[in-house]
Amino acid sequence: MWPLFALVLGLLVGSFLNVVVHRLPRGESLVFPPSRCPHCGRRLGPMDLVPVLSYLVLRGRCRYCGKPISPRYPLVEALTGGLFLLASLFYPPSLEALLVFAFLGLLVALAFIDLDTFELPDGLTYGLLFLGLLSAHLLSFPRPFAEALDGALLAAGALALIAGYGGLFLRRFREGRAEVPVGPHQVHMAALFGALLGPGVGMALAFLTWALSARTGRPVVLPDRITLPLLPLAWILAPYLGADLLSTLKGSFLAAGGLALAGGLYWAFKPVNEVNKEGEETDPVAIGYGDVKLLGALGAWLGLYSLLALFLGVFVGALVGLAFRQRKIPFGPYLALGGVVAFFFGETLWRAYMAWLGL
Ligand SMILES: [Zn+2]
């Protein structure tokens, strides 16, 4: 009965997620008005809204005007139903199972919103992050709290640094615009200080420059051209200075992740497109940290397996990008896919890989 219940619940949640995916980016209410046909505007009754079945019975057309309905709707419903069914095979009826359903539902919504808009709403990424941390704190599920927090910071830090180096190469080593009071510059500084002095001090120093930037109204930062090249140097030299490589790496990722997630949260509450003194729109770079926030959120649920999610996401995303020759693909759906695979099969995959290596 439990798997059947999970499947039906998933279909219904999927039907709601269609509404979320459609309305959340537009800032519309999720409950009102009730669903209408996008073509004829006729209000849809309960018989038109049975997940998957209505679509099949009506052969993909509106009952009233006969115009085609996007197959996306039954697809999202079937996908959510399938994921909930999968979860029910791993978890018995429990609070834990409900948390896994929430994890999966949020990922489905994020993936499809990113496909449509190339954006990952902060409400959903931070919702996923804080739900993971809260669950870890209260239930030690799916990971103990320390592991969840480390996972979130490490994963966000790793991807923020990858983005930092990517940006530096794309700009051909020209210095990027520094955000006031906080932006990627602080993230890169936190990584460097974190490598040299440990994550706590690294974060503290970067937060200090954030405060100074806020106070003075101008960026108080080290240039990326200094911090980013020095960072790998610090990693390489660490063993010669009596520190071990692993804790140096960890120090920089943790500190960078702390700044990236805290800075992202700051910008999430700031009105966007503020106009500065020169009259130009200041769209903060930190808003482009959607993937960083999503991977950070996955870290809270997956711990170190979030790095496996990142690897799988890059791998599948690159394959799809090559296969369809697309230049710009949203990364969120692939991260979400990697997250789901790593959540259910991460340990199995890791053990199989180790066995294959003969370890
Ligand atoms: Zn219609």
Automatic annotation (TrEMBL):
It is found in: Cell membrane. It holds the Pfam family A24_N_bact. InterPro entries: Prepilin_IV_endopep_pep, Prepilin_pept_A24_N, Prepilin_peptidase/N-MTase. It is a multi-pass membrane protein. Residues 8-88 form the Prepilin peptidase A24 N-terminal domain. Residues 102-167, 221-321 form the Prepilin type IV endopeptidase peptidase domain. Belongs to the peptidase A24 family. The keyword Mitochondrion does not apply. The chain crosses the membrane at residues 74-91, 97-116, 123-140, 152-170, 191-214, 226-246, 253-269, 302-324, 331-353. This is Prepilin peptidase. Keywords: Cell membrane, Membrane, Transmembrane, Transmembrane helix. Its main location: membrane.
